[in-house]
């Protein structure tokens, strides 16, 4: 079993380059299936979720060329369309194959998605959207089967603000007849990224980034070239790690506007964050105030950074409260942090963190991707060596984690 070993106690210093966004990449790659043409995507992060998606595209018969951080997909000739099992079970975002293949062929059979276990993660709003567009949807043998004689634009109100449902409906609507209006849509930057690609392919999309998105579909979409936005969750993780270690790090290749929810909470703790056009410099000085944080859909504080932030809050004065309003039980990092000396209690959706508890290296397990990020930050500040298993979760979402942290002066290695 692979282990990540971290010898803690070194402040991070220097500059880190942020990679392309995982949550954009895993939507943009299936979006290429909508065009009978070649599409090029640049600034692709080198992470496991992207590798799995490349394998899925090859399984489907698409021509995939990879060159550094650039992928070219020619989805003109696709085969093997039913995907009830295999790679689709390995990541959450395989649900985008439903929207993409429904849009392209009017039918799809896709196994239920995998991804982080954060408690129940239903896809009822995705299904509601597909049905509104005219698809018949059945759930059999662990897979969703969709078919539509004709996809027709519709007005869809999402009962829950959902990133996945918003993007999935956009994908199918991009080739539907007429106008689709998504109300109560999610506003995450990754949604704008997908809208930019679909628009470059020929669909008409207005309102991405607001809660009403209008899509006028086009029967045939063309190929295009697109560059992925920076990963705001990877950036936030390095910002938190810089502060937690009392370091000084320039987090480069970011869109500072996307980081505002994180920057605001770090500043509230007393951490210095300086902004320039494409970078943020974070300086930690060790005396931090405890804060209350509530995760919310964008532009609220992202649930995906709640877990690493909890580790930072073990260093702050007083009691901090972290409430996850998106996932009811995203606290699988807490027991592990407590094994390292943290004093954190979970009640319902809220973690109560008693601050100023020094951490001690221990053998811990990452139960999901951001639990892994929380434990990496813990390892960086703990005394002695921390041994993290469950590294495959971390590899799903962080490009060259060890390399980037080593460049910042951390001492870590794999065994
Ligand atoms: C691949 C990807 O982009 N993953 C991100 C995406 O996940 P994902 O797209 O799965 O998350 P959603 O935005 O859909 O989920 C938000 C909330 O809505 C609920 N819900 C969602 C869909 C649905 O049909 N019914 C329903 O009840 C979920 O259980 C959750 O409580 O957004 C999450 C919220 O920012 C992030 O944590 C994930 O990193
Ligand atoms: C929850 C996450 O990913 P996924 O939705 O792919 O499981 C995440 O990136 O933190």
From TrEMBL:
What reaction does this enzyme carry out catalytically? phosphoenolpyruvate + UDP-N-acetyl-alpha-D-glucosamine = UDP-N-acetyl-3-O-(1-carboxyvinyl)-alpha-D-glucosamine + phosphate
Q: Which SUPFAM superfamilies match?
A: EPT/RTPC-like
- According to the UniProt entry, what is the EC number of this protein? 2.5.1.7
2-(S-cysteinyl)pyruvic acid O-phosphothioketal-modified residues are where? Answer: 116
Family membership:
Belongs to the EPSP synthase family. MurA subfamily.
- Name the UniProt key words of this record, in alphabetical order: Cell cycle, Cell division, Cell shape, Cell wall biogenesis/degradation, Cytoplasm, Peptidoglycan synthesis, Pyruvate, Transferase
Can you tell me which residues bind phosphoenolpyruvate? 22-23
Q: Which GO terms describe its molecular function?
A: UDP-N-acetylglucosamine 1-carboxyvinyltransferase activity
Stored Pfam families = EPSP_synthase
List the catalytic residues: 116 (proton donor)
- Protein name (Swiss-Prot/TrEMBL): UDP-N-acetylglucosamine 1-carboxyvinyltransferase
Q: Which Gene3D superfamilies match?
A: Enolpyruvate transferase domain
Q: Where in the cell is it found?
A: Cytoplasm
UniProt xrefs under InterPro entries: Enolpyruvate_Tfrase_dom, Enolpyruvate_Tfrase_sf, MurA_subfamily, RNA3'P_cycl/enolpyr_Trfase_a/b, UDP_GlcNAc_COvinyl_MurA
Occurrences of domain Enolpyruvate transferase (ranges) = 7-405
């Amino acid at each position: 079993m692979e282990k990540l070993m971290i010898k803690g106690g070194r402040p991070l210093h220097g500059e880190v380059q942020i990679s392309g966004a995982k949550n954009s990449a895993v939507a943009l790659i299936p979006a290429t299936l909508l065009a009978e043409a070649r599409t090029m995507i640049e600034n692709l992060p080198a992470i496991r979720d992207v590798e799995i998606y490349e394998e899925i595209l090859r399984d489907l018969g698409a021509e995939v060329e990879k060159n550094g951080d650039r992928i070219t997909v020619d989805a003109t000739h696709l085969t093997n369309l039913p995907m009830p099992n295999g790679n689709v079970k390995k990541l959450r975002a395989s649900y985008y194959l439903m929207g993409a293949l429904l849009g392209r062929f009017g039918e799809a059979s896709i196994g239920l998605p995998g991804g982080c276990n954060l408690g129940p993660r239903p896809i009822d709003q995705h299904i509601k959207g597909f049905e509104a567009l005219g698809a018949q949807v059945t759930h059999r043998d662990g897979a969703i089967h969709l078919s539509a004689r004709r996809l027709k634009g519709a007005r869809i109100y999402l009962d829950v603000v959902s990133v996945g449902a918003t993007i999935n409906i956009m994908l199918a609507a991009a080739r539907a007849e007429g106008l689709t209006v998504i109300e109560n849509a999610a506003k995450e930057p990754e949604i704008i990224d997908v809208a930019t690609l679909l628009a470059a392919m020929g669909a008409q999309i207005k309102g991405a980034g607001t809660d009403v998105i209008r899509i006028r579909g086009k029967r045939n979409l063309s190929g295009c070239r697109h560059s992925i936005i920076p990963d705001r969750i990877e950036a936030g993780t390095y910002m938190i790690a810089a502060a937690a270690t009392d370091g000084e790090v320039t987090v480069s290749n970011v869109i500072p506007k996307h980081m505002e929810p994180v920057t605001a909470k770090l500043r509230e703790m007393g951490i210095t964050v300086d902004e320039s056009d494409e970078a943020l410099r974070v300086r930690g000085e060790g005396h931090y105030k405890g804060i209350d944080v509530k995760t919310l859909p964008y532009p609220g504080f992202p649930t995906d950074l709640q877990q690493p932030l909890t580790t930072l809050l073990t260093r702050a004065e007083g009691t901090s409260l972290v409430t996850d309003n998106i996932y009811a039980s995203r606290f699988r990092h807490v027991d592990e942090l407590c094994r390292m000396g943290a004093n954190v209690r979970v009640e319902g959706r809220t973690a109560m963190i008693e601050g100023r508890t020094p951490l001690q290296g221990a053998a811990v397990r990452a139960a999901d991707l951001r639990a892994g990020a929380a434990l990496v930050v813990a390892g960086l500040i703990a005394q002695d060596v921390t041994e993290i298993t469950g590294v495959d979760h971390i590899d799903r979402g962080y490009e060259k984690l060890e390399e980037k942290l080593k460049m910042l002066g951390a001492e870590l290695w794999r065994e």
